[in-house]
Amino acid sequence: MVHPIRVSCLLLLQFMATSSSFGGMSKDLADCTAADRPTSAAACTRVMESGRLPRNQFYIGYYNRGWSYYNDGENDKALTDFNEAVKHNPSFPESYYSRAVIRDALGERASSLLDLDRYLELKGGSGIARINRALLFRKQGEPDRALAELQALANSSRVSHKAAVLRGHCFCPTWASSPRPAMRLETRSRRLGTTLRPTMHVL
Question: What is the mean predicted confidence (pLDDT) over 103-126?
Answer without folding.
Answer: 89
